From TrEMBL, chain A:
Protein name: Methionine ABC transporter permease
Domain ABC transmembrane type-1: 14-208
Lipid bilayer topology: Multi-pass membrane protein
Lineage: Bacteria, Bacillati, Actinomycetota, Actinomycetes, Kitasatosporales
Coiled-coil parts of chain: none
Organism this protein belongs to: Streptomyces ficellus
UniProtKB/TrEMBL annotation, chain B:
Organism encoding this protein: Streptomyces ficellus
Pfam families, per database record: ABC_tran, NIL
Entries under PANTHER family matching the protein: AMINO ACID IMPORT ATP-BINDING PROTEIN, METHIONINE IMPORT ATP-BINDING PROTEIN METN
Top-level taxon of the source organism: Bacteria
The protein's name: ATP-binding cassette domain-containing protein
Residue numbers spanned by region Disordered: 338-380
Residue ranges occupied by any ABC transporter domain in the UniProt entry: 2-247
Transmembrane segments: none
InterPro entries reported in the protein's UniProt record: AAA+_ATPase, ABC_transporter-like_ATP-bd, ABC_transporter-like_CS, ACT-like_dom_sf, MetN_ABC, MetN_ABC_transporter-like, NIL_domain, P-loop_NTPase
Molecular functions (GO terms): ATP binding
UniProt keyword terms in alphabetical order: Amino-acid transport, ATP-binding, Cell membrane, Membrane, Nucleotide-binding, Translocase, Transport
Length: 223, 380
């Protein structure tokens, strides 16, 4: 394949990949954030201590995390069809990608929120702050750098998942590699695609780290 | 202003029960600085955390400014709206400051106001006012991470005052600070207490804190309040452990068969030449075994250990005379603290030298041989 043949494939693949990953990230954050917070709050000694809820949600998250993504991808085909109307194409792929990443992101959120000094929670309680206030004004802002790191990690994991999704009717760079690189033995195309993926992942990591550092520089040291 | 009755707190940890508070009755009057002192594990933190119900008492009641918080809180684990409203009228400062590192100093001070639903412009004005009050007007835009410990605690105090509380709770607010900074923070608390009529309940394990700013104090041991009262009352209580700790006087009797008295002066009495009057009126020789002047709770107090010749029975009248003059005269049992005497005497020497240039807290303690000079000072 010549460069001029490769270029439109790579461009389209990159656009599709970014499209899937972006929306899957948005959905994962919206879904995973409350689950992560809930896991912390309902835990023993938490503000909303509730062993049953904690155990059930924890178990679901663990199942979600231990399922290999490729199996999830196939198992979710009926559900995806129900939601999007089809299970093929980049939009359809957002569903399994997000569902695969929600438990992953939720655990990262849980860890990040747990790191917040309990003294701060007490301080806000002593001011008469309610639980929603504590979440909004203490837990989330204080955990923000860790949460940004969690999003970065999730995006990178999703880029990996999205390549896999190419095997099951998805679009994007993964699908292009399977069609042109694997099935047509075009090693050169495969290598170029790998380089593009590496570049994307590196840029995401750099941007994420940059934001974390920016937040840290605003005087966010201990206490 | 703050009253607890029969307050108990039992923690359950891994099946084991720990009684942190065992029937605490405490009464803090409006406008006073009340210090609770005790060793580690005595239950001081549990007590102060029960006052704003950060910790739910196992039994007993807490009343703050006429509101029974324990009744308000109901039975649920979560703080209901009424309790939260009541809490917003009680400021609290913490040993480790507990400032939000993600917010600027000013935004930290605004936080309680946000919770109270104060509008942006008012919040901003009030926060700057408060920062000015604690002497940090220039640090409004800094982050807590850029401040020293003392500055952080000032922010903590400003934040605690944001909701215009009548009561301020302080759990070891100065324990993470060096002595110099501790003094300045205590002075700030004292000033706020005076200026704003703020009632302060503070927890400490340092007697110096009680000495410097408390009007009243309580001693806690094993979950119980074993002594409590105004500093003057405590100093007047024979055998009070707190009084002795607050203000030790020592000195050994020159021999058997004499009467040893601890005499405490405060206020007016400290300015009268009582000892020379006593000596002249009854024609007795008085030896001074030890004496000290100190500032306790902002008041000058003198203590002196004197020896009168003859047994107690012969000295009833002179002792009566001292008490008539408004002094506290407390009989010291022979050999009561002969052991403690030797060690403390050496301490007193060191103090006397160190105090030549001590300015913040005036303090003089002298062993017996230097005493006459001090008596003149007291008599002046
Ligand atoms: N959350 C808790 N769970 C179990 N036991 C507790 C808890 N908090 C305090 N205790 C126990 O209650 C007792 C009193 O503790 P508290 O913190 O009130 O003491 P303190 O006087 O403040 O001590 P310190 O000077 O060390 O701060 C201690 O024996 C402590 O181990
Ligand atoms: Mg404590």
């Amino acid at each position: 394949m010549s460069w001029s043949e490769m270029q439109p494939l790579l461009t389209q693949g990159t656009i599709d990949t970014l499209y899937m990953v972006l929306w899957a990230t948005v959905v994962s954050v919206i879904g995973g954030l409350p689950i992560g917070v809930l896991l912390v709050l309902t835990d023993k000694g938490g503000l909303l201590q509730n062993t049953v809820v904690n155990k059930v949600v924890g178990a679901i998250v663990n199942i979600g995390r231990s399922l290999p993504f490729i199996i999830l991808l196939v198992a979710l085909i009926p559900f995806t069809t129900l939601v999007v109307g089809t299970f093929i194409g980049p939009t359809a792929m957002i569903v399994p990608l997000a569902i695969g990443a929600i438990p992953f992101f939720a655990r990262l959120v849980e860890t990040a929120i747990r790191e917040v000094d309990h003294g701060l929670v007490e301080a806000v309680q002593s001011m008469g702050g309610s639980i929603p206030t504590i979440i909004r004004k203490v837990l989330l802002p204080q955990a923000l750098p860790s949460l940004v790191s969690a999003v970065t990690t999730t995006v990178i994991v999703l880029i990996g998942y999205s390549a896999l999704a190419g095997a099951v009717g998805g679009e994007g760079l993964g699908a292009k590699v399977i069609t042109y690189g694997y099935q047509r033995f075009d090693t050169q195309f495969m290598l170029v695609t790998v380089v593009v993926l590496i570049v994307i992942v590196t840029v995401v990591q750099l941007v994420g780290d940059g934001i974390v550092r920016l937040l840290a520089r605003r005087g966010r040291t201990a206490s | 202003m703050i009253t607890t009755t029969g307050l108990t707190k039992v923690y359950e940890s891994r099946g084991r029960q720990v009684t942190a508070l065992d029937g605490v009755d405490l009464h803090v009057r409006e406008g006073e600085v009340f210090g609770v002192i005790g060793q580690s594990g005595a239950g001081k933190s549990s007590l102060i955390r029960c006052v704003n119900l950060l910790e739910r008492p196992t039994s007993g009641t807490v009343t703050v400014d006429g509101t029974d918080l324990t009744a308000l809180a109901g039975r649920g684990r979560r703080a209901n709206k009424d309790l939260r409203r009541a809490r917003s009228r009680i400021g609290m400062v913490f040993q480790h400051f507990n400032l939000l590192s993600s917010r600027t100093v000013k935004d930290n001070v605004e936080l309680p106001l946000e919770i109270l639903g104060v509008s942006g412009a008012d919040r901003s004005r009030r926060a700057l006012e408060l920062l000015d009050l604690v002497g940090l007007a220039d640090k409004a835009r800094a982050y807590p991470g850029q401040l020293s410990g003392g500055q952080k605690q000032r922010v903590g105090i400003a934040r605690a005052l944001a909701g215009n509380p009548k009561v301020l709770l302080s759990d070891e607010a100065t324990s993470a600070l060096d002595p110099e900074t501790t003094r300045s923070i205590l002075q700030l608390l004292r000033d706020l207490n005076r200026q704003l009529g703020l009632t302060v309940l503070l927890i400490t394990h340092e007697m110096d804190v009680v000495k410097q700013i408390c009007d009243s104090a309580a001693l806690m041991k094993k979950g119980r309040v074993v002594e409590s009262g105004t500093v003057a009352e405590l100093l007047a209580t024979p055998g009070s452990e707190l009084a002795h700790e607050l203000f030790p006087v020592t000195g050994d009797a020159s021999g058997p068969g004499s009467t040893v008295l601890d005499v405490t002066f405060h206020g007016e009495a400290a300015t009268q030449p009582v000892i020379s009057q006593l000596s002249r009126t009854y024609n007795i020789d008085i030896s001074i075994l030890g004496a000290a002047m100190d500032t306790v709770g902002g008041r000058q107090i003198g203590r002196m250990r004197i020896e009168l010749p003859g047994p107690y029975e012969e000295n009833v009248v002179p002792i009566g005379f001292l008490r008539e003059q408004g002094l506290q005269a407390e009989l010291v049992a022979p050999d009561a603290d002969a052991d403690a005497g030797a060690g403390a005497g050496a301490d007193a020497d060191a103090d006397a030298e160190a105090d030549a240039d001590a300015d913040v807290q005036e303090k003089a303690a002298v062993p017996a041989q230097n005493a006459p000079k001090l008596v003149k000072e007291i008599a002046k």
